[in-house]
Amino acid sequence: MDLKDLKVKKRDGSIEPYQPDKLVRIALAAGLTHRQALTLGTHIYDWALTQTQPIPTSIVRDQIISELKAVHPPAANLYLWYESTKHPPK
Predict the structure, then answer these.
(1) Taking CA 24 as the corner, what is the angle to CA 90 and CA 71, rounded to the nearest 5 degrees?
(2) Contact at 8 Å (CB) between 6 and 17?
(3) Of 30, 70, 79, 87, which has the fewest beta carbons less than 10 angstroms from its beta carbon?
(4) 34-48 and 20-29 helices, crossing angle to 10°
(5) Helix or strand or coil: residue 7?
(6) Which helix (H) or strand (E) holds 80?
(7) Cβ distance 67 to 43 under 8 Å?
(8) What is the pLDDT of residues 30-82, one digit of tens each?
């Protein structure tokens, strides 16, 4: 399996290609260095290769948070805040 085979299932049920560059951009915005963001992206990509396709974005998000907490806890908090602004409670 390679990058073109990886898919994510969004909350609305739509299926999209996995976009590792999106994760790196978010990690940089959350305060990681470029090297840390690329490493995070690689870890998540390697993990995604082991998952049943398509991967629900909620599962990807949980894995990102877990990785961020291990590398840079403040970035994990910022990422959680960012996610909360995308889908405010109803």
Answers:
(1) 90
(2) yes
(3) 87
(4) 140
(5) strand
(6) helix 73-86
(7) yes
(8) 889 999 999 999 999 999 999 999 999 999 999 999 999 998 999 999 888 88
Count of other CB atoms within 10 angstroms of residue 78: 18
Distance CA 36, CA 69 (A): 12
Supply angle C-alpha 5, 78, 81, rounded to 5: 90
Closest CA to 86 of 17, 12, 34, 8: 12
Q: Which amino acid is at 10?
A: K
Give yes or no for a contact between 7 and 55, defined as CB atoms under 8 angstroms apart.
yes
pTM: 0.85
